[in-house]
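hey can u check if this looks right to u? its 132 residues, i copy pasted from the old doc so theres a chance i mangled smth
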Amino acid sequence: MVPADLEPPPGIVVRIRSRGLGVKNAIPALAFAAALTVAGAAYADQDVAITIENHRFVPAEIEVPANQRITLTIVNKDATTEEFESRALKVEKIVAGNGKITVRVGPLKPGRYKFEGEFHADTAQGVLIAKE
């Protein structure tokens, strides 16, 4: 039987087959499960909200941590459709008028990643800046 204070973190299931080896093999398994949980938290997505308003991205310049996955939520407050496009991020997605999309990118190396609204490229410009 494993003492209560050695239970794995919530969401982690550890199955131990009983072969008469007891707790001495359960402790390394629990330590491994805890390490996976901590490592998973370090790679959690960074959430970023972008609004399209008057055919412009707000904010137009966004700083994010490098080497992490980024979840972009793009809300179009305009009545007209826009296309969120970035060759640097390898993304091209339609955002309906008064609609919302979610885009996941990365992990990104340090650098500048331009994006635009293809249907209003003269005004809908932005950049994602990944910094260490």
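The chain has two domains: 4-42, 46-131.
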